[in-house]
Amino acid sequence: MVRLACKKVQKKVEEELKAKTDLLISKGNRAPSLAVIMVGDNGASRTYVKNKEDACTRLGFMHFDYRFSEDVREDELLNLIDELNKRNDVDGILVQLPLPKTIDEKKIINRIDPEKDVDGFSPINVGRLSLEEECFIPCTPKGILEILKYYNIETRGKKAVVIGRSNIVGKPMAMLLMQKGIDATVSVCNSHTKDLSSYTKDADIIIVATGKVNTLYSSMCKNDAVIIDVGVNRIADSTREKGFYLKGDVDYDSFADTDCQITPVPGGVGLMTVIELMENTYLSCVRRSGI
Ligand code: GUN
User: Fold this and answer.
1) Which residues contact 42 (CB under 8 A, 6 or more apart)?
2) How remote is the C-alpha of 180 from its chain's centroid?
C-alpha cells in the first residue's frame, strides 16, 4: 500500500499562496480577509474554525470571527451577513456548518454574496460550477484534485466512483471529476446503492465521503486503486488524552498488502480543505480589487 501523505501537498500550496499574498501586499494592496461565523459549540466545528484562523495567521490574512450561542435568532445571523456583504474590507464569508436545527441553513447560505462565498455553497456558485464557469470551487473537492495532481494520478478516461452525495463533497466532487480537462467517467453512489462493490471493484479512483467508518475495505477494490478518504470520524477511546481518536471512512489496515494508494486520516484530505479555503479567499481579494 502507498500512503498519499497530504502534508507535502498542503505545504506546497501554502508556500505558493504565501508568495502570491506577499507580492499582493508589497504592491500596496491590503491583505486578503476572511469572516468566520460559528454557532454553538460543536467540538469538530471548533477544531475546523481554529485551523482556519491559524492558517489566516500563518499567511498574514486578516480574519474576523463571530461566535454565537445555539439560541441565536436567524435574523441576527442574516443581519450580520448583510453587513459583511457590504463591507469592503471583507473578501470571504464562511458560515461553519452544521447550524442548529432552529436555523434555516439554506436561507443563511443564500444570503451570502456569491462573490464572497468562498465555500462555494451558494446556488449561484453551484450553478457556475456545473456550467464550468469561473466560480468558487468547494474547498474539499478542490483540495482532492490538488492531491491527484501532485501525485501525477491520471484522471482522463479513468473510472471514478464517488461514495456520498453531500452538497459539500460528493456532488461538487462528481461535477469536477467529469469536467473537461479532468475527463473521468464518474459514478455517484449513496446509502441506497445496491451492491456497492460492483461499482468500486471496477474503479480506478474512489472518493469515500459517507461519514461512516469501514465504508470501503480492500476486497471491494482493484489491487491498484487510488482511494481518497474524506471521512473524519471520532472514535471514543478513554486511553487517549482527548478521549477519542480520528478514523476515516476507509478500513485503512485492510489495504496493507495491496498496491492501492490511499490518503490517511488524519494527515489527509482535511489538511487540504483549509488551505483551499485560503486560496479561495485570496482569489476573492484579487477579483474584488480588480488587480
Ligand atoms: N462543515 C464541514 N465542512 C465544512 C466546510 O467545508 N465549510 C463549512 N462552512 N462548514 C463545513
Assistant:
1) 98
2) 21
